[in-house]
């Protein structure tokens, strides 16, 4: 089997149930999810399993879930059986609550960075936000029921998780988060609430 097929040389690609333009909003959205998955993979290579076993387990599960999200978005069959459910979102919310209790309290906005792994997680977080924005555009362009809404919810929660995980990575490595120097004190609860990341 050849890796190349030449079928996409004219700007079209195959999804489940159709041929579409490679720059369609649907392809753009699941392509960004693929990009996100790659950066999560990069972050995993930068995490010491002896220190970050729990986060590595989370991220591996999320890589599989992102594949599910991409596959669901690529499915335009009349009868569809989506893989993604709200289950992983509920698990992620519990993990976010645990992780946010670990690092020092936040008062101000922080700059993306710190340790290499935390910096990569922040990159993944911003890509997640882009994927979520593209998902919102896709939902606006699509007929009701044509796109699985759970993917948008999953991406929204994932960006929160990646923020929390990046802070935990820095904390466990004793690398302080760098505050944005012109930030006022914006977090009344120390950055514990979901509203701190939205």
- With strands numbered from the N-terminus, the spatial order across the biggest sheet is 1-2
Number of strands: 2
The helix content, as a percent range, equals 55-70%
Can you summarize the main beta sheet? 2 strands, antiparallel
Low-confidence segments, given as residue ranges, are 194-198
Mean pLDDT, to the nearest integer, reads 90
Distance between the termini: 45 Å
SSE order: EEHHHHH
Strand content: under 5%
- What does the radius of gyration come to? 18 Å
What sort of overall outline do the alpha carbons produce when their principal axes are compared? elongated
* Class per helix and strand makeup: mainly alpha
**Regarding quaternary structure, how should these chains be classified?**
single chain
Number of helices: 5
Question: What do you see in this structure?
Answer:
The chain is mainly alpha-helical and 198 residues long. It contains 5 helices and 2 strands, in the order ββααααα. The chain has helices at 25-45, 49-73, 87-100, 116-141, 149-172; strands spanning 12-15, 18-21. The protein has a two-stranded antiparallel ribbon.
């Amino acid at each position: 089997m050849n890796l190349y097929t030449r079928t996409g040389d004219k700007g079209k690609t195959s999804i489940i149930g159709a041929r579409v333009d490679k720059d369609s909003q649907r392809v753009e959205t699941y392509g960004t999810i693929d990009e996100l998955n790659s950066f999560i993979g990069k972050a995993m290579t930068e995490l010491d399993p002896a220190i970050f076993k729990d986060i590595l387990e989370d991220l591996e599960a999320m890589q599989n879930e992102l594949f599910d999200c991409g596959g669901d978005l690529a499915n335009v069959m009349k009868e569809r059986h989506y893989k993604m459910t709200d289950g992983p979102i509920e698990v992620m919310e519990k993990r976010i609550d645990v992780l946010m209790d670990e690092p020092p309290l936040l008062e101000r906005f922080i700059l993306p960075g710190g340790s290499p792994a935390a910096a990569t997680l922040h990159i993944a977080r911003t890509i997640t936000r882009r994927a979520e924005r593209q998902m919102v555009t896709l939902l606006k362009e699509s007929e009701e029921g044509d796109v699985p809404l759970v993917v948008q919810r999953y991406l929204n929660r994932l960006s929160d998780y990646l923020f929390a995980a990046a802070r935990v990575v820095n904390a466990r490595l004793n690398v302080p988060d760098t505050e944005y120097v012109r930030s006022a004190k914006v977090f009344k609860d120390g950055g514990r609430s979901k509203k701190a990341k939205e």
